[in-house]
Amino acid sequence: MSTIVSPLRSLEVLSQHEVNRLRDTSKAGLHDLLRRCSLAVLSSGSMTDDSLVLMETYHDFDIEVIQQDRGIRLKLTNAPAQAFVDGKMIRGIREHLSSVLRDIVYVYNEIQQHRRFDLTTGEGTTNAVFHILRKAGTLKPGRDPGIVVCWGGHSITREEYEYTKDVGYHLGLRELDICTGCGPGAMKGPMKGANLAHAKQRIPDGRYLGISEPGIIAAEAPNPLVNELVVMPDIEKRLEAFVRLGHGIVVFPGGVGTAEEILYLLGILLHPDNADMALPVIFTGPANSADYFQRIDEFLVYTLGEAARSKYRIIVDNPVEVARTMRKGIDSVTEFRRAHQDAFHYNWRLTIAREFQETFEPTHTAMAGLALHRSQPVHDLAANLRRAFSGIVAGNVKEHGLRAIEAHGPFQLHAEPELMRRLDELLGSFVAQGRMKLPGQEYVPCYRLV
């Protein structure tokens, strides 16, 4: 389909300079980024998570920003037909397209190119994350805590997917909202379940927040249930947005991306300044995922120590208990923040060490240079393991990672012998369980342990 559409919601009129940046096809321009992310959004519902395949399939797709006196319009050329019904773009897809444009423009012009945000400091980074969320209209100061962040794999079994829906349903019955990475699998299921529960409870303003970043958006289009989409500039700011915005976290079975999120979360919660932080964390899945969580638990205790185990609770095959426990936990969060006069809508009190905020570019050199040994502070090891898993995610699904692997071969990771053995077993179990790719796709490892 080729058409011209107007953005929806509160997208501001763009300046001529901003429009020129979006049109710029040079390396320094934003056009290629907008094109890749827009194509993924327009391909919502596609069963491929290979961004290279998507770009090759729609190699003649293009998007152009047209400046008009009364605002801007988007000219789409050879867009996927599935984004349209009887020649009109599906409204949810149009909203997501508008959100992508809004955040790309705002981050570049107001965050990355503005002196008031010093992204080399922790304070500056946290402030930037706050402003991006506020610009998107995601911060709701008048609402009590009730956002449950749901993490888990995009490549899960049908039984695991149905379980995530059950958990989301029981969370929704308890008037809790859902925030995820906005892709398929364990990110879509909880929203689907909560959507039905909110309808039963006659909750008219249920929230289904999707927080992503360009590399993930380009690989995994937002699922249609997302009614608030925010695109963060990189994975580190995306993860910070989750923990600053959420009031509780549920982790479903997943692969390296889920392990990355777990290590990020525990690395933060183990910081001494966060010892009294109220943030309920639950690992859960159906009965056949018990072994998965046992492996995760053993790896975490070996690498981060027994203290890590105290920061989460494992509940297997009991969606009702998960929802009840989370509801009680978030009630405690409400009491904690009232007692400390903290904001409900953004967790300023949480301390995030700088190594969890610094952008990690998973090049072959950077991956080979990661310090994967236990003779370092726990938070440093957690940060380096998180980076290793982040690199594997990039090599699995992100366009720049896929191209790097294609050009230079698998990433190499170096670790001390026992940690190497345990890491190999963990990653091997992910591969054996089909957690690296969508079902039916053969997985070719993008990493090598040496």
UniProtKB/TrEMBL annotation:
- A Pfam match: DUF4478
**How far does the signal peptide extend, from start to end residue?**
none
The record ties this protein, via Gene3D superfamilies, to: 3.40.50.450, MoCo carrier protein-like
Give the EC number(s) listed in the UniProt record: 3.2.2.4
Q: Membrane-spanning residues where?
A: none
Note the coiled coil stretches, chain numbering: none
Family matches, as SUPFAM superfamilies: MCP/YpsA-like (SSF102405)
According to the entry, every stretch annotated as the Pyrimidine/purine nucleotide 5'-monophosphate nucleosidase C-terminal domain falls at 330-450
Q: Where is the Pyrimidine/purine nucleotide 5'-monophosphate nucleosidase N-terminal domain?
A: 4-110
Catalytic function, reaction form? AMP + H2O = D-ribose 5-phosphate + adenine
EC main class here is: hydrolase
Q: Which domain of life is it from?
A: Bacteria
> What protein name is recorded for this chain?
AMP nucleosidase
The organism's taxonomy opens as: Bacteria, Pseudomonadati, Pseudomonadota, Gammaproteobacteria, Oceanospirillales
